Write a sequence for this structure.
């Protein structure tokens, strides 16, 4: 029997961190703090985990969100106690809404300091209760075999829930009493107790967990409807889809004869070949035609992924009166109007595979192609007008920026699209391409905060990465530029600067001119060049489409963060959008009257 002097906080934190690592955690984002010192040091000493130190807690959590998106692994976030914990909340909400796995580790004061006036002490128990998948208070450190084993079970369960069982953010609150210094001793324990710290739980979370599956009977019933309904739609909304789904949904479309309305953020518009004629990208344009909508009403809708980006499409689906099925792994509801069947809680690729199998058993073959041809024809008309109106728009029209970026991006690249206008312009104007690159977005709560930080997180996997964002969103997250410099993360930012919240020009509030600028578009008149350079990053003011292509291509090959600012006229760009939509509506009306 050999005794050793230890600090219980550091033994406790080490046991917790080692089990997180044994359960599959490989990344952590840490913001400085005293109360969180035991956790910070435990993570720093764990060689299997990559640590990112980020000063701003809000930026840190969004950075972690980006890593989790890119790596498909749970990422830990560490903060000290007090208001630092509240700074994480925006990213936690986004992770909750978009089911991204985060392990939120908040250090806390001991319970006797609560409501005592002690510094940096707030009620942290279940702080994020409305937007968390699971919460546990770890309790104060106790160096017994029972308590250490329970702590490791908490760590293991946190990863299990976050990654698989109820995918999304989980919160572990970890209170610590002083002393917090590494060299301070609180206990004398037998060295055999420390073996518990090192040993992984035998039932590791890395074992595969079976997906939830609906019975074949349910899918068979839908397959029967597919065979009976000639007029159907497959709507693929924003989400992260694996290659298997992209393959099987195309097969289902071919067999069923249903067009695939592919959201710009769905990946279905990319890696498209000539045989994929059933993929439709210009629906937001031609569905503005009342003539087309009246003459082409679906009977059944299969919706995969999240809520659609296009309000025009959503209105069309709502008013169709069709049977509408929502299909996603966790049975989440993604129809604001509630006009749909209860969500089917199963893997999208599994649904497609089973539906294909059932249709094959029925010996089903769609005889008429009239329905599909109507959508193809409308898509082709819209695409031709897009080429003549959008692709020839003079610099610096916002409508053309998306197509310019897509034409310049290499196939192995990553594109992060900011909220507000950028993600809408992606949906409006991104066409089909043979290129295969990943598109990322924060469409859970669709906020403009934390976009740059999230993009930096996705960029750590060392692929050429581009962020398409607006000026207000960029200003919201300037502290991300500190993390980019500190961790030497290369990123190309295409900054569309229309000097304020231009999206409000497209909303009903635009009718109230006296209020619009003062309270909604809120012009800031900031010198972006000076701001970017003050953080030590590269900056270029883009002067033409050729200049954009040249600067963009060169920036992707550098190891720095580069901002390419395009100063635009929001009103002129809005006019181009409306001219395009009006031209499409007129042509579609003539074609389908």
């Amino acid at each position: 029997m050999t005794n050793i002097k230890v600090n219980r906080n550091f033994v406790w934190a080490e046991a917790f961190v080692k089990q997180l690592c044994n359960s599959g955690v490989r990344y952590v984002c840490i913001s400085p703090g005293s109360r969180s010192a035991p956790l910070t040091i435990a993570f720093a000493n764990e060689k299997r985990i990559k640590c990112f130190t980020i000063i701003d807690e809000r930026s840190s959590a969004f950075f972690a969100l980006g890593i989790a998106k890119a790596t498909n692994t749970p990422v830990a976030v560490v903060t000290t106690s007090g208001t630092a914990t509240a700074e994480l909340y925006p990213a936690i909400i986004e992770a909750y809404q978009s089911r991204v796995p985060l392990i939120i580790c908040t250090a806390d004061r001991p319970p006797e300091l609560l409501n005592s006036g002690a510094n940096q002490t707030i009620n942290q128990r279940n702080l994020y209760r409305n937007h968390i998948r699971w919460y546990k208070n770890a309790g104060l450190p106790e160096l017994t075999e029972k308590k250490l084993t329970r702590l490791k079970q908490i760590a293991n369960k946190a990863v299990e829930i976050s990654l698989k069982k109820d995918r999304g953010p989980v919160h572990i609150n970890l209170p610590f009493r002083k002393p917090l210094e590494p060299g301070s001793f609180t206990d004398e324990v037998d060295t055999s107790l420390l073996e518990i710290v090192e040993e992984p739980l035998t039932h590791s979370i890395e074992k595969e967990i079976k997906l939830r599956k609906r019975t074949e009977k349910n899918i068979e019933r839908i397959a029967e409807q597919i065979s009976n309904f000639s007029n159907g739609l497959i709507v693929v909304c924003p989400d992260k889809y694996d290659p298997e789904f992209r393959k099987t949904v195309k097969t289902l479309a071919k067999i069923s004869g249903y067009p695939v309305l592919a959201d710009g953020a769905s990946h279905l518009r990319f890696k498209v070949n000539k045989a994929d004629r059933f993929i439709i990208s210009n629906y937001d344009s031609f569905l503005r035609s009342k003539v087309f909508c009246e003459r082409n009403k679906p009977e059944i809708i299969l919706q995969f992924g999240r809520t659609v980006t296009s309000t025009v499409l959503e209105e069309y689906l709502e008013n169709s009166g069709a049977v509408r099925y929502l299909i996603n792994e966790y049975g989440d509801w993604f129809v604001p109007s509630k006009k749909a069947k209860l969500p089917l809680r199963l893997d999208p690729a599994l649904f497609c595979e089973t539906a294909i199998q059932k249709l094959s058993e029925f010996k089903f073959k769609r005889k008429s192609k009239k329905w599909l041809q109507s959508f193809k024809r409308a898509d082709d008309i819209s695409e031709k007008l897009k080429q003549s109106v959008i692709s020839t728009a003079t610099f610096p029209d916002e409508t053309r920026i998306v197509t310019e970026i897509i034409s310049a991006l290499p196939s192995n690249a990553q594109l992060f699209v900011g909220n507000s206008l950028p993600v809408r312009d992606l949906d409006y104007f991104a066409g089909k391409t043979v290129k295969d690159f990943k598109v990322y977005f924060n469409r859970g709560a669709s906020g403009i905060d934390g976009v740059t930080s999230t993009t930096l997180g996705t960029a750590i996997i060392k692929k050429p990465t581009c962020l398409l964002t607006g000026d207000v969103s960029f200003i919201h997250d300037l502290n991300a530029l500190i993390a980019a410099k500190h961790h030497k993360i290369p990123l190309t930012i295409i900054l569309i600067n229309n000097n304020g919240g231009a999206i409000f020009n497209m909303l009903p509030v635009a009718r109230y001119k006296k209020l619009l600028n003062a309270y909604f578009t809120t012009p800031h008149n900031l010198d972006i060049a000076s701001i970017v350079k003050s953080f030590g990053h590269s900056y270029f003011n883009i002067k033409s489409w050729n200049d954009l292509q040249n600067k963009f291509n060169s920036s992707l090959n550098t190891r720095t963060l580069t901002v390419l600012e395009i100063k635009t006229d929001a009103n002129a760009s809005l006019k181009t959008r409306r001219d395009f939509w009006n031209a499409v509506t007129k042509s579609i009306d003539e074609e389908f009257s």
